[in-house]
Amino acid sequence: MGEITIHAVDGISFTIEKGEFVVIVGPSGAGKTTVLNILGGMDTATSGEIRVDGVNIASYSEKKLTGYRRNDIGFVFQFYNLLQNLTALENVELALQICKNPLDAERVLIDVGLGERLNNFPAQLSGGEQQRVSIARALAKNPKLLLCDEPTGALDYQTGKAILKLLQDTCREKKMTVIVITHNSALAPMADRVIQIKNGKTGSIVLNERPLSVEKIEW
């Protein structure tokens, strides 16, 4: 049997400034998640450079990539990936045991609106509350980059808006670089920078001089 090489992404090039809220938009299968995984050190590029804070992480060994994921990256996924036998507080605390400069788990959960739910298990939380726990878990690592893969995909409209507001507020208040990938182009006006990916390539890149708050966006 012959081997066939499939290029998930090919010809991707963009720059993101520190502290920006970035939306990467494109249809399913466009390569958005692959780009996010490469940025987060979960996948490796076969060629090219990926510079984060001036350092080319594409040249990292597996050991260095592990440290990069552990200390510099916060991930938020469509599905929450919480441990069902741990409380909200314990889920966040567990993730912090391997970090260099973590924040206080209880304080971060209070910041995301879960001060009254610290000792609840995931089964006792709504979908939106579980996603807030997963965001708190990522934020408490005190990462350089917060990478969000369809973070509202499993949520209803109003809960999804609340989660997006939390992410947007986090970016503004903590000066954290937040990257959200989505197939929903209606979210573009809330971003500082909108990067379109199509067929594994960078399409348009748009800078919004006056990003809208998520409350003003309808879809």
TrEMBL record:
Coiled-coil residues: none
Assigned keywords, A-Z: ATP-binding, Nucleotide-binding, Transport
GO molecular function, one term: ATP hydrolysis activity
Domain of life: Bacteria
Entry GO terms, CC: membrane protein complex
InterPro entries in alphabetical order: AAA+_ATPase, ABC_transporter-like_ATP-bd, ABC_transporter-like_CS, MacB-like_ATP-bd, P-loop_NTPase
Residue stretches making up the ABC transporter domain: 1-219
Classification via Pfam families: ABC_tran
Keyword Transport: yes
Family membership: Belongs to the ABC transporter superfamily.
Protein name: ABC transporter ATP-binding protein
